[in-house]
Amino acid sequence: MKIAVLGGLGLQGRAAIADLVASDGVEEVVCVDTAPDGAARLGGLTDLTHVRFVVPEGAIGPALANVLADVDAVIDLLPQPLMRDAVQAAIGTRTPLVTTNYGKAIADLAPAAEQAGVSIMTECGLDPGIDLVLYTHAARQFDTITA
């Protein structure tokens, strides 16, 4: 399989790439990020033999579609404002997509994804997030909590 990781040089992206490189059945990982020094940023973290680096140029939607047309699946770790562009590119290229962002912002794209036969899986992040961990810690400091 060929897997694209959008935002591949962020904290989650680097971890995802390291896991994918070590996974059976993954023959190529495409790291898509605006930073031009991808190999230097991932060097020492994982074997880069099967990692290809892409710096998108031009309008984000067409640039992502260009990359996604050549992969089997995509992991979207881009900031939430770019989620719609990533999902539209996935629908347009019929590439299954997993994103860490919440699905409400793209709920209106569900019919197009269904018609294209594309799976879009949202909210696959690092939950519980630090906010939930902190809330739980704070709640445990009280003897009782009432609504």
UniProtKB/TrEMBL annotation:
It comes from the Bacteria. The keyword Nucleus does not apply. Coiled coil: none annotated. Keywords: Oxidoreductase. One of its GO terms (molecular function) is oxidoreductase activity. The keyword 4Fe-4S does not apply. InterPro entries: AASS, NAD(P)-bd_dom_sf, Sacchrp_dh_NADP-bd. This is Saccharopine dehydrogenase. It comes from Mesorhizobium helmanticense.
